[in-house]
Amino acid sequence: MAAPLWPLHGANLGTLLRTCDAVGACLAVPRFPWVPEALRRGNTLRRPACVHWVHDPPGWLARERAAGTHVVGVELAEEAVRLADLPAARGRMIAVLGHEQTGIPPEVLDLLDTVVEIPMVGTGASLNVAVAGSLVLYKLAGLL
């Protein structure tokens, strides 16, 4: 499951929705007023997609983790695993994607079981959230 819980741009949600369909995953999104329209516009499949609505991201992640779901955060951190070394998912897993500018909130970092980073060679510090999420989802699905 991809969880862009602090989205900034609706276009990223549409891209992630399409990637979720491609790898057989669901998308977890916050209940922001503009999100349903962004998903409707981004759903180029023109059929219902697997979407979970999240009211309280930290609480939801804590409950999922307590239920045995492995929570992976895509974030720059010293203890991060490089994307190439991330194993394919063997059970229920959530890939948490942070805000495009501020990343994953500090109060959520303690809820992550694994932190994964995508190495950058150029001058940018990170990729667009939809691109980063897509790469991680393909890797977790065992398709990369």
UniProtKB/TrEMBL annotation:
<dbReference type="Pfam" id="PF00588">
    <property type="entry name" value="SpoU_methylase"/>
</dbReference>
<dbReference type="GO" id="GO:0008173">
    <property type="term" value="F:RNA methyltransferase activity"/>
</dbReference>
<dbReference type="GO" id="GO:0006396">
    <property type="term" value="P:RNA processing"/>
</dbReference>
<dbReference type="InterPro" id="IPR001537">
    <property type="entry name" value="SpoU_MeTrfase"/>
</dbReference>
<dbReference type="InterPro" id="IPR029026">
    <property type="entry name" value="tRNA_m1G_MTases_N"/>
</dbReference>
<keyword id="KW-0808">Transferase</keyword>
<keyword id="KW-0489">Methyltransferase</keyword>
<dbReference type="GO" id="GO:0032259">
    <property type="term" value="P:methylation"/>
</dbReference>
<feature type="domain" description="tRNA/rRNA methyltransferase SpoU type">
    <location>
        <begin position="11"/>
        <end position="138"/>
    </location>
</feature>
<dbReference type="InterPro" id="IPR051259">
    <property type="entry name" value="rRNA_Methyltransferase"/>
</dbReference>
<dbReference type="InterPro" id="IPR029028">
    <property type="entry name" value="Alpha/beta_knot_MTases"/>
</dbReference>
<dbReference type="GO" id="GO:0003723">
    <property type="term" value="F:RNA binding"/>
</dbReference>
<protein>
    <recommendedName>
        <fullName>tRNA/rRNA methyltransferase SpoU type domain-containing protein</fullName>
    </recommendedName>
</protein>
